[in-house]
Amino acid sequence: MAPTGNNEAAGQDGPVVIKEWGWVQTAAVVPLSRKLFRKWLSKLDADHYEEDATLCFMELLTNAIRIDSPDGMTETRWILSDTKLRVEVKDFSEDAPWMRNPGLDGENGRGLILVHLLADNWGYEHCAFMNESGVTPGKWVWFELHK
C-alpha cells in the first residue's frame, strides 16, 4: 500500500479532493483500506457517506484484488466534491462487471447487487494501462453517492 496523491482541484461541484491509493493484492488489505477510507471521510466531514460508501468500496476492492495485475497492485481513487462522492477501483479484466444470481445458499455473488442498491450511480469504463510489459487492458469500476 502506498499513497499516490492527495490533490485538491476546483470543478463544477466546487472544490474537489482526490485521494489515490495503491493496494497490494491480498485479502489482508481489505480491513486496512476500510479503516483508512473511513478516516479520510471523517477528516473531510463527509461522515454522512460512511456506511453506504464503505460497503460499496469494500465490494469493488474485494472484486478487484482477485484479478491479478502485472505489478501485484490494485489502484483506487476517491473523489469528494460538494455534491457527491465518487470511488473508482482499477482492475485488469476486460470483462464487464455483472450482477449474478447467487441463489439462496450462495456464499458470494451479492457484491454488485449491493452496489446497485446503495449507490446513486455506478458503472465501469474500459481502458488500457501502461506497465513494464507494455499496454494491459482493464477497466475502472466506480460508484457515486450524492448528497
Question: What structural keywords apply?
Answer:
147 residues, alpha+beta, disordered N terminus
- In spatial order, strands of the major sheet run 1-2-3-4-6-5
Beta content: 35-45%
Largest sheet: 6 strands, antiparallel
Number of strands: 6
Radius of gyration: 15 Å
Question: Could you characterize the architecture of this molecule?
Answer:
By secondary structure, the protein is an alpha+beta fold. Helix content is 27%, strand content 41%. It is built from 3 helices and 6 strands; from the N terminus they run ββααββαββ. The chain has a 6-stranded antiparallel beta sheet with strand order 1-2-3-4-6-5. α1 (29-43) packs antiparallel against α2 (50-65) and α2 (50-65) runs antiparallel to α3. The protein is globular, with a radius of gyration of 15 Å. Mean pLDDT is 86; it is low at 1-6.
Brief overview:
This protein has 147 residues and is of the alpha+beta class.
Layout of SSEs?
Layout: E1 2-11, E2 14-24, H1 29-43, H2 50-65, E3 73-80, E4 84-91, H3 111-118, E5 121-131, E6 134-146
Antiparallel strand pairs: 1-2, 2-3, 3-4, 4-6, 5-6
